[in-house]
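Appendix B, example 12.
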Amino acid sequence: MTQFEALVATLVIETAVLLPLLRVLKWAPRSPWWRPVPVILAASLLTHPFAWTLIVELRGWAPTFWARAIPVELALTVAEGVLYAWLLPVARWRGLVLSMAANGTSFGLGLLL
């Protein structure tokens, strides 16, 4: 999978996870359904290049895939959680929950692909 393909997959998966989650949990009840989309896309567009570079391109900094992926995914999950909390806006813990759901799903499906 190329970086572009991975980015497109991430954008699609994370948007598909977060939009229904926001509605089901009623964390964005007063906004139109599409209002969170730019925030979700922006978060992934900002963090995905770092994840790809640190996990895929710079293989020499850690000996195994998991030694690279775990700290990078944790850091990016926190960063996206902060962005969600600030820009959606939701409580900080909700931003982190949203980020964990989105990143966990996209990372898991990325491994399968």
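The chain has four helices and no strands. The first helix runs from residue 3 to 24.
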